[in-house]
Design goal:
By secondary structure, the protein is an alpha+beta fold. The chain has 28 helices and 17 strands.
């Protein structure tokens, strides 16, 4: 795990760039790579690479980056881990035409794999990665982001120069133009709690989409291509398989994914909440008799109305698998102590307050000697794990009933004129009337009605008839084109695999953990496991209306029944309770200041929301936006 940065001249007459350009960006990412930093400049100043190193696999100096092949024609800066690198290396060594300088560096494996197979080598990589590669033979510069989007990669093109980095703050340090707010992206943020790819909240700075690569040619050409889609790699034999076959296939692949993610030359641990996902992770991790695993849990100083601690379940699981258990209990002061650093680490708002406990559990692990931790993200999306998804599935099925469209339009008209335009069910009906899926994301902040009133008149006029469905429309179109079972649940999973997971849940893990120089690995989002999970029909996943029924069958006997059968509670933060005190006062002050100074929000409407207790959790999203503006734009 590391931080990467660099540049490539897309125009031949672009200005000369010196080492300082790369050093300045590298300095912004020290927490991503506290173990060293290096840069490389191409001899004719066409491109350059920077790298900050967090040493995890092959700790020798020979494995430092940027790294080149034996003749210097290929140079790479790489952030992430390739879990099957030894398998690929063995295949390459049998060809006897590659010269190796390291003992077991996964970075060097990528270089020689690219030499051997070109860009098609991506098909062989099993892991998480953001890659920048210079091919001096073809005079091509390549950027790649992993299939699921576990690792971030940002870029901008300014005055004929492509600049990229693992963190936006690194790009900002060398940009010539003053940072500006991307208004359309802000509007989408108010729906999705984050900015959907390829936008960021910074005008002119973009994110490379998951499972995509870009090739910049010497003549100014740019090729952007998707190299993986889950629907092209599903397993037809699982679609008609019985429960036993499905359970065995899932458990075998998950066991492999966990085992691969144990590999490191530094200490590895697990995050443990006591839910099915983290408990399964801990159980599989502890297999093999390699000593006790260290498990880390976060709770709060008391049980709140909006969140009750689950630490006793985590302790139960730690005892079950013989883990060394560590926990920390947070209070409201911990939130205030961390807020400035949270905003700095986020780069752009990730409006999920769970960033706070993720940071503190990461710090707990790092303070106790752990450099790599396994986490449980992804299971809920793959196996119908959210309670809210049951509601969405019911609504989508109701929308399938052949009711004349004129009746739906009349119903929508009636709700609007009855003063219910702001209600979420009115928004769902509006989507149905507009031939859109009811489900847009597993995490939505405000309805289109609320958003139209939250933003200022100036913003409304600028956006015209735009709705945030446009941000996910390409994903929906791709789903309708590729999915062999176009079920509502498959759409819900596919939507979140492409948006909420990579840009919200995985970014909160990446940015908060890297804030303490900790690498997090995600076994449930191993792409081979995802391909298996997406091969299972909706009818199996929703059998008997039991959430995660497929996964529960697969792991029964691996973890205690009490943990499998207990009521699910998501990882959360008691924002609703804390809103009643100092937090609510500060949220209102900061948000209204942002509204007044920028003219982007309707201060009167937003002020009215602060008088409604039911909006407490949602107002955190506006607060996060306001803090970001103060830190990066003001």
């Amino acid at each position: 795990m590391c931080g990467i940065c660099g540049f490539y001249k897309t125009a031949s007459n672009a200005k000369h760039i010196n080492e300082q350009y790369l050093n300045v960006m590298n300095e912004q990412m020290v927490l991503r790579g506290p173990d060293g930093g290096n840069i490389w400049l191409e001899s004719e100043n066409r491109c350059g690479l920077g790298h900050r190193r967090l040493s995890i696999i092959d700790l020798s100096n020979n494995a430092s980056q940027p790294m080149s092949n034996e003749d210097g024609s290929i140079v790479i800066a790489f952030n992430g881990e390739i879990y099957n690198h030894m398998e690929i290396r063995k295949e390459l060594e049998e060809k006897e035409n590659h010269i190796w300088k390291t003992d077991h560096s996964d970075t060097e494996v990528i270089i020689h794999a690219y030499e051997e197979w070109g860009i098609a080598c991506l098909e062989k990589l099993r892991g998480m990665f953001a890659i920048a590669l210079w091919d001096g033979r073809k005079k091509e510069f390549i950027l790649v982001r992993d299939r699921i989007g576990i690792k971030p990669l940002y870029y901008t093109i300014e005055n004929g120069i492509l600049t990229f980095a693992s963190e936006i703050k690194a790009i900002l340090k060398v940009m010539e133009r003053k940072p500006q707010i991307n208004v359309k992206a802000m509007y989408d943020y108010l729906s999705f709690l984050t900015t959907p790819c390829e936008d960021t909240l910074f005008e002119g700075i973009k994110k490379l989409r998951p499972a995509m690569y870009m090739v910049f040619g010497e003549n100014g050409s740019v090729i952007e291509k998707r190299y993986w889609d889950v629907w092209e790699h599903t397993h037809e034999e699982l679609y008609h398989a019985d429960d036993k076959t499905i359970s065995e296939a899932l458990l075998e692949e998950l066991r492999t994914a966990v085992k691969l993610r144990k590999e490191a030359d530094v200490p590895v641990g697990v995050f443990l909440s006591g839910g099915i996902d983290s408990s399964t992770n801990a159980a599989l991790f502890s297999e093999g008799g390699q000593g006790s695993v260290k498990a880390f849990c976060i709770g709060y100083d008391q049980d709140y109305e909006s969140y009750q601690n689950e630490n006793h379940y985590a302790k139960m699981m730690a005892k079950e698998c013989g883990a060394e258990y560590y926990e920390r209990l947070l209070n409201q002061e911990d939130l205030f102590d961390f807020l400035p650093e949270m905003v700095r680490l986020q780069d752009e708002p990730i409006a999920d307050p769970v960033c706070i406990p993720v940071y503190y559990v990461s710090k707990l692990a790092r303070d106790n000697g752990i450099v790599v931790a396994q986490v449980g993200e992804g299971s809920d999306e793959l196996f119908w794990g959210y309670q809210g998804w049951k509601t969405f599935l019911k609504i989508e099925k109701l929308n399938d009933v052949p009711v004349p469209m004129i009746l739906k339009r009349m119903g929508l008209w009636g709700l609007n004129h009855a003063g219910r335009a702001h209600a979420v069910y009115t928004e769902w009906l509006r989507r149905a009337v507009n031939h859109q899926p009811v489900f847009w994301s597993g995490a939505e902040a405000f309805t289109e009605y609320d958003k139209r009133h939250i933003v200022s008149d100036r913003v409304r006029k600028r956006l015209g008839d735009y709705t945030s469905f446009e941000a996910i429309r390409p994903t929906y179109d791709r789903f309708m084109d590729k999915a062999w079972e176009k079920s509502h649940l498959n759409w819900m999973t596919y939507a979140d695999l492409n948006h909420r997971l990579p840009e919200l849940l995985l970014m909160r893990v990446d940015k908060m953990s890297m804030g303490v120089s900790l690498e997090c690995r995600v076994p449930f989002l191993d792409h081979k496991f995802v391909e298996l999970a997406m091969s299972i029909p909706q009818s199996k996943k929703t059998e008997d209306n039991v959430s995660k029924t497929v996964l529960k069958k697969a792991v029964r006997g691996i973890i205690p029944d009490e943990l499998i059968d207990r009521k699910k509670q998501g990882f959360g933060v008691p924002v609703y309770d804390w809103f009643k005190g100092r937090l609510g006062t500060e949220m209102k002050e900061k948000t209204l200041h942002f509204a007044g100074e920028t003219g982007l929000l309707d201060a009167d409407y937003v002020g009215g929301l602060f008088e409604k207790q039911e909006y407490a959790s949602q107002l955190w999203y506006l607060f996060n936006l306001s803090l970001w503006w103060e830190t990066y734009i003001l």
